[in-house]
Give the backbone structure.
Amino acid sequence: MSDIDDLQTHLLTAIDAAAGLDALETCRVHALGKQGVVTQRLKTLGAMTPGQRQAEGPRIHALREAVAGALAARKAVLETAALDARLAGERVDMTLPVDLAATGSIHPVSQVMDELAEIFADLGFAVATGPEIEDDWHNFTALNIPETHPARAMHDTFYVERTDGQGERHVLRTHTSPVQIRAMLAQKPPLRIIAPGRVYRSDWDATHTPMFHQIEGLVVDRGITLGHLKWTLETFLKAFFERDDIVLRLRPSFFPFTEPSAEVDVGWTMRNGKRALGGSEGWMELLGSGMVHPRVLANAGVDPTEWQGFAFGVGVDRLAMLKYGMDDLRPFFEADGRWLRHYGFSALDVPTLSAGVSP
Ligand code: PHE
């Protein structure tokens, strides 16, 4: 065997034995580095006679090729092994029980919406929805609020500019009442729906934010009266506040889409120096309601000589504040972890009528 064959055997054995990428790099430098043994051999070619070079050249280049090939092959093996080891080390068994404390919580608005859906489902109401970017017709016109009506100014509307410059004007819905129209157009009466969701008005103080939440209620059937409205609201509020002594007061009011209209107040009494719901020492305004205006029924394709309806709209955030004791609305939407930890609910506190709607 020639010394070149010896050298190749020696180098390839060392390469195959390299235990890690660092050891392999040492082999590479030893063989192919600037001062490497193979590099040295290549350098000897320059000093050879043409005859020698013709004989030795191919052998030395073959040596270099063999060593480079062995280095690459070993490197691939070691890298795969390193990756496998890392993957094995980082393996997570998803079937093991979690032993971390759960972080994050259910926002009070979500919790209250779930409570409301549960209460109204028990009364036979289905959940309906509509878009938050609403057209003028559903948000205003169909609800008996024509273009020139001063009630449009009452709502501090956010208008949405159309990029195509044509077609109907859109708004961020100022209330959930447009879902009344959508529900009546989508299904024939009798119907009983609630529509929870976000609404928008240009307003900002301790009890007003530009985005807030409402829940709309709508019942359309034959022979519906104000009595049905009052019973429904009483039943809902007693279930929601979990008190039998909830007292309601209906005060004449005005909404273009209801006739007659009633503002509903809920009674409070002083307990431990604080106003608490229940009884009737004083009153606080809670929600708007009324009998669906015949023109609104007709606008939504319902014959007002055959069908009557009642509707109400209530602030979900306000309900949450009253039930869970927050006095400022703004932190609801500031995503402050401390507030969320304090007022949030466990994901396991799912409201059910059997287990109680409150945690
Ligand atoms: N849409 C009214 C508001 O936002 C509330 C309401 C709903 C009043 C349904 C009557 C009937 O103020």
